[in-house]
Write a structure and sequence with these properties.
One of its GO terms (biological process) is carbohydrate metabolic process. By secondary structure, this protein is mainly beta. The protein is 3% helix and 42% strand. It folds into three domains: 167 residues, Jelly Rolls (Sandwich), CATH 2.60.120; 272 residues, Glycosyl hydrolase domain, family 43 (Tachylectin-2, Chain A, 5 Propeller); 75 residues, Immunoglobulin-like, CATH 2.60.40. Strand 30 and strand 31 form a beta hairpin.
């Protein structure tokens, strides 16, 4: 006898989706209360025509009640009231094809500069309008990765640096004369791979040469100056942000041993480097950072936003655990050190049975559910009606769906008009009766990483996404990610953890543990004290983790949480 999924495939091929259209409206929540990384934005195609999209080196700036998001090569910028839903503002008055923007406001004026050939400073009284004007047409320094910082006393400082040889630099600017430099730039942070393993390049941090130290960002907290910087390179999942601390804006600075404080080396999408720490309208801190795809080009990148906080000892932390799972929208003051905004909606789609209308060689449907944004399923065409289906194996409570499109053979450029992806998602309990979960057939938003929160939990076993239209190329998906919960038992606690640190190279250690019964995966947490385990790495299908980005002078503590579709079991 044919399975319910196979019977459904035959039926939908004959009926062309008529049943779904007759069953009513989409179950998508019109006012979402959750969000997910990578952030849902209209990522722009590159100017070289290689068909990849990017945004990177982000800055979020709160100005007159709105959050403004600036990023490299964006063609403009975005603004938001809640850090969840973003409105795009294209710009022709800013050098928005340059890399690494820097933004600062003084009273009612916003100042902007960036890397690249312009070396100018711009200003605006209302960034919602594209009316930026040149403030200083001949800025004294030609730099990469700038940062503008206004201190409490009204003095302005400028930080910059992007090199595998040169240090991170800083200099004071003249607030009363076009933000010209005052004095000579000073060396603030030098490379130190001998002691800081995470500054070493490669996906495993084992290329023991200088990485690229870059992207400085200054935050002041409780009278202390926190100078953040990225390493070892934007193309790696281990791309991260570290921090030095000082009593003065130009140092001297002392290395913070919990560096890198922003770090996400595993999961569906990795990377949490070249970012910016900012405070929201409720007084909470956040860290927005660059995440890596880097398949078609090393600069193929996305953005992620993570909770951040300073602990009682003054250490800066960033919470990236389950950082690409659904998160709760924040509407007030919250203690990120002790309160998680992870929804608890677990991944239901990992390695589930999938079928497709067609597939290209080496782009089979299983690549849409393997938790790796760096490979993908592609249909043989971009024609209407191409589909991808999934069997969860049992009825689960589905809460949300993330769709990450892969732009197979799109080959568009930044100057091309980009039509949005248009599609429908259906769900069923039995493979016979279907409901429309999301109707994007008339979608007007260009979202290559889309997120659908359902208006209420749906009992679902089977799901199907059907193409209506693509921007160009073929219908392709790197992540058909389904979130919710399944009735059942959580995994057993992890036992018998072993850590073997390399005595010949203290930058490296191997963590292993006995597999937990019922576990789908593990969240490894670690840090430099038992109570502050905010470094994390998610592991699927294995019970070992190699770390080569440790600091030689630090002692580390570890905990391994086990999880499955029913929830998370804390380790000890």
């Amino acid at each position: 006898m044919a399975s319910p999924m196979k019977r459904w495939i035959v039926k939908t091929a004959i009926l062309s989706g008529i049943m779904c259209l007759c069953l009513g409206v989409s179950a998508q929540n019109k006012q979402p209360t959750t969000w997910i990384n990578p952030t849902a934005l209209n990522y722009r195609f590159s100017e070289n025509g290689l068909g990849y999209r990017e945004a990177a080196d982000p800055v979020v700036h709160l100005f007159k009640g709105l959050y403004y998001l600036y990023a490299s090569k964006s063609g403009g910028y975005w603004y938001s009231e809640d850090l969840c839903s973003w409105q795009y503002r294209p710009s022709v008055t800013l050098p928005v094809k340059d890399y690494a923007p820097a933004v600062m406001s003084i009273r009612d004026t916003v100042f902007y500069t960036a890397s690249g050939g312009t070396h100018q400073i711009y200003y605006s009284l209302d960034p919602r309008l594209d009316d930026w004007k040149v403030y200083n047409a001949h800025f004294a320094l030609s730099v990469t990765d700038p940062d503008l910082f206004l201190d409490d006393d009204g003095r302005v400082y400028f930080y910059y640096g992007c090199s595998d040889k040169d240090p991170i630099m800083g200099v004071e600017l003249n607030r009363h004369h076009l933000l010209d430099t005052i004095g000579v730039p000073q060396v603030l942070i030098r490379h130190n791979i001998k002691d800081h393993g995470w500054e070493s390049p490669a996906e495993d941090n084992l290329e023991r040469v200088n990485g690229w130290n870059e992207g400085p960002w200054m935050t002041k907290y409780n009278g202390k100056y926190y100078l953040q910087y990225a390493s070892p390179g934007t193309q790696f999942k281990v791309y991260a942000d570290g921090v030095y601390e000082s009593d003065r804006p130009l140092g001297p600075f002392t290395y913070m041993e919990n560096s890198p404080f922003s770090y996400k080396p595993k999961g569906f999408i990795g990377g949490a480097g070249h970012g910016a720490t900012f405070k929201d309208k409720y007084g909470n801190y956040w860290h927005i950072a660059t995440m890596s795809i880097s398949v078609r080009h090393m600069f193929e990148r996305r953005l992620g936003i993570f909770p951040a906080f300073f602990d009682k000892s003054g250490l800066l932390h960033c919470v990236t655990g389950f950082g690409d799972y659904p998160q709760k929208k924040v509407t007030g003051k919250i203690d990120f050190e002790h309160t998680s905004i992870f929804t608890g909606w677990m991944l239901l789609s990992y390695h589930k049975k999938v079928m497709a209308s067609s597939s290209l060689p080496d782009h089979g449907p299983e690549l849409a559910v393997n938790e790796d944004i760096r490979n993908w399923w592609s249909a043989a065409s971009g024609k209407k009606g191409e589909w991808l289906s999934m069997d969860l194996g049992h009825i689960s409570k589905v809460q949300a769906i993330q769709i990450n499109f892969a732009d197979q053979d799109a080959n568009l450029k930044d100057t091309d008009r980009v039509e949005p992806y248009r599609y429908q998602i259906e769900g069923s309990k039995d493979g016979t009766t279907w409901q429309l979960l999301a109707d994007k057939s008339n979608n007007q938003k260009d979202l290559v990483d889309d997120y659908i929160e359902l208006s209420y939990p749906q009992d679902i076993r089977y799901l199907k996404i059907t193409n209506i239209g693509v921007p160009a190329g073929k219908f392709s998906v790197s992540g058909f990610r389904v979130f919710g919960t399944t009735k059942g038992k959580k995994p057993d606690p992890v036992k018998d953890i072993s850590v073997l640190r390399n005595t010949g190279d203290l930058r490296s250690a191997v963590l292993s543990w006995t597999p937990s019964k019922g576990a789908t995966g593990y969240l490894v947490k670690y840090g430099i004290a038992p109570g502050i385990l905010f470094h994390s790495a998610i592991v699927y299908g294995e019970h070992q983790l190699e770390l080569n980005g440790l600091n030689t002078s630090a002692t580390y503590y570890f905990k391994v949480d086990a999880f499955n579709e029913s929830g998370v079991t804390d380790g000890k």
